[in-house]
C-alpha cells in the first residue's frame, strides 16, 4: 500500500487541489509541505495532535515537513470556525506560546539534519510595508470571491472586522513566501482552512506562474458531528500540566463506541490490518479497543512510562484494584483546612478539578453524582477532617468517569 492509499484508507483526506500531482509527490517523498499553528494558547491541543500525526506519517515516508508558527498571523487571529473575534494577544504572550509549541512539536517531528523545519511567519509579516503589500498582493484577490469563503460567510451576520478580513491574505502570503524561501510545494491543514489554502495556491500561480498544491485533512468529529477534544472543563491539552496523562488517557478510553475505530485510523500508527480486525469486535470487546486507543495515544504524547501509569491507574479504578498509586492526586496543605481542621466537600471537588465552580459542585452533590471512597454523598454541607486524608487518602468520584485521589502533602 502506498502512502497515499494509506491516507485514503484511514479516512484522513478531505479535499485536494490536484490529486494526481499530490499523490506523486507524497508517494515518492518529494513533498516539502507546511502546516500552520497559530499560538493561541500556551499548549497544543487534540486538534493540533491530528495535524502532528499527519506530519509524522509523511516524514516517515521521506517527505519534509515545515511547522509554521504564527508569530505574525497570531497578531490578527483566524476567523475560521469562530462566532466572535479572538482576543488580541501581546507580543510577549505570543512568543511565550511559541516557545511552548516548539518543545511539544519536537516530541513528534524529527527536526535533525534538515529533515524538518520550524519557521515563524513573524520573520516576514511583521516588517511588511502596508502600501507595498497592497500593490504586490492586493490586485490578486477578489473581494467578491473572498466573501463567498465559508470562513467569512458564517461571520457576516454577526459582523466581520477588517482586521480578520485580512487573515486570508496573510495566510496566502505565508505560502507564497515559503514556496520562494524553502521550496515548499504543498500546504496541509484542517478542512475549515480550505478557502485560505486555495488563496495561497492562487497567489503563487498568479505571481510566479508556478504550481503549488493544497490538501485538507478530515476534522476530528464525533459521530454527532461535534469537534472532539473538548470536555466540560475545556480543551484536552498535550501539556501534562494542563491535562494530566491520566485524564488524557481517560478521555480516549471514554470515547463513544461509534468513534473508537475512526480514532484508531486517524490518530494511531497501528497497522490498518490490525484496526480492520478490531472493526469486527462488538460489545465488551469494544472496551478492549478503547484501552488500546487510549494507551497508544497517551504513549505518543506523553511517552511509554506515563502511558503505563495512566493505564494502571485506570485499571485500579475500574477493575476494583486497591492500587491507587497511579491515579491523579490532589495534595492538601495546612492552609486548605479551616480553623477547626476540616474542609468541606464542595471545596474538595473544586480543588481536585472535578468541578470548575462551587455552584456546579453543589449541583453535582445534590443530584447524587458524587461519592467518597465508593459511598454516594448528597450532603452539600458535608466536611471532612484532616485525619481522613492520612495514609492512602480518599478517592473522590464525580459521575461515572471522573476520579481524583486526595491526600495530605
Oligomeric grouping of the chains: single chain
The largest sheet, given as strand count, sense and whether it forms a barrel, is: 6 strands, mixed
Strand arrangement within the widest β-sheet reads 1-6-5-2-3-4
Tell how many strands the DSSP assignment holds: 15
Determine the strand fraction and express it as a percent band: 5-15%
Mean pLDDT: 88
- In which range does the helix fraction lie? 40-55%
Residue runs with pLDDT of under 50 for 5 or more positions = none
Tally of contiguous helical segments: 18
Shape: globular
Structural class: alpha/beta
What is the gyration radius calculated from CA atoms? 24 Å
Span from first to last CA?
A: 54 Å
3D structure, described in words:
The protein is of the alpha/beta class and 409 residues long. 43% of the residues lie in helices and 15% in strands. It is built from 18 helices and 15 strands. It has a 6-stranded mixed beta sheet with strand order 1-6-5-2-3-4, sandwiched between helices. A 5-stranded mixed beta sheet has the order 9-15-14-11-12, with helices on one face. It has a two-stranded antiparallel ribbon with strand order 7-8. Helix 3 (46-60) links the parallel strand 2 and strand 3. Helix 12 (245-253) packs across helix 16, helix 13 runs parallel beside helix 15 and helix 15 (285-302) runs antiparallel to helix 16 (304-318). The longest helix is centred in the last third of the chain and has 18 residues, at 285-302. It starts with a helix and ends with a strand. The mean pLDDT is 88.
Amino acid at each position: 500500500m502506498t502512502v497515499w492509499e494509506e491516507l485514503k484508507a484511514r479516512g484522513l483526506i478531505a479535499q485536494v487541489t490536484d490529486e494526481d500531482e499530490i499523490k506523486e509527490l507524497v508517494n515518492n517523498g518529494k513533498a516539502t509541505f507546511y502546516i500552520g499553528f497559530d499560538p493561541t494558547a500556551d499548549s497544543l491541543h487534540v486538534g493540533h495532535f491530528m495535524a502532528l500525526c499527519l506530519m509524522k506519517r509523511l516524514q516517515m515516508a521521506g517527505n519534509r515537513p515545515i511547522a509554521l508558527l504564527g508569530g505574525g498571523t497570531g497578531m490578527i487571529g483566524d476567523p475560521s470556525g469562530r462566532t466572535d473575534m479572538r482576543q488580541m494577544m501581546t507580543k510577549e504572550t505570543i512568543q511565550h506560546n511559541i516557545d511552548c509549541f516548539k518543545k511539544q512539536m519536537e516530541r513528534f517531528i524529527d527536526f535533525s539534519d534538515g529533515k524538518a523545519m520550524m519557521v515563524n511567519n513573524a520573520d516576514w509579516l511583521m516588517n511588511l510595508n502596508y502600501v507595498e503589500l497592497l500593490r504586490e498582493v492586493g490586485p490578486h484577490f477578489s473581494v467578491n470571491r473572498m466573501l463567498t469563503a465559508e470562513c467569512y460567510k458564517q461571520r457576516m451576520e454577526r459582523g466581520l472586522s477588517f482586521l480578520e478580513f485580512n487573515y486570508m491574505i496573510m495566510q496566502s502570503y505565508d505560502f507564497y513566501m515559503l514556496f520562494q524561501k524553502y521550496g515548499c510545494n504543498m500546504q496541509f491543514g484542517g478542512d475549515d482552512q480550505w478557502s485560505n489554502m486555495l488563496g495561497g495556491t492562487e497567489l503563487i500561480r498568479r505571481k510566479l506562474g508556478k504550481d503549488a498544491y493544497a490538501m485538507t485533512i478530515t476534522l476530528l468529529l464525533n459521530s454527532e458531528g461535534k469537534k472532539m477534544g473538548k470536555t466540560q472543563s475545556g480543551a484536552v491539552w498535550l501539556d501534562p500540566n494542563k491535562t494530566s496523562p491520566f485524564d488524557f488517557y481517560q478521555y480516549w478510553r471514554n470515547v463513544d463506541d461509534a468513534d473508537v475505530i475512526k480514532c484508531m485510523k486517524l490518530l494511531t500508527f497501528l497497522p490498518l490490518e490490525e484496526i480492520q480486525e478490531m472493526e469486527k469486535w462488538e460489545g465488551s470487546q469494544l472496551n478492549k479497543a478503547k484501552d488500546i486507543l487510549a494507551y497508544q495515544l497517551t504513549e505518543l504524547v506523553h511517552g511509554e512510562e506515563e502511558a503505563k501509569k495512566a493505564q494502571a491507574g485506570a485499571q485500579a479504578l475500574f477493575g476494583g484494584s486497591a492500587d491507587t498509586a497511579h491515579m491523579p492526586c490532589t495534595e492538601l496543605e495546612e492552609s486548605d483546612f479551616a480553623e477547626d481542621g476540616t474542609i468541606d466537600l464542595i471545596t474538595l471537588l473544586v480543588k481536585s478539578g472535578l468541578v470548575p465552580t462551587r455552584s456546579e459542585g453543589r449541583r453535582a452533590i445534590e443530584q447524587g453524582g458524587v461519592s467518597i471512597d465508593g459511598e454516594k454523598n448528597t450532603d452539600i454541607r458535608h466536611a471532612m477532617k484532616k485525619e481522613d486524608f492520612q495514609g492512602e487518602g480518599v478517592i473522590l468520584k464525580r459521575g461515572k468517569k471522573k476520579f481524583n485521589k486526595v491526600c495530605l502533602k
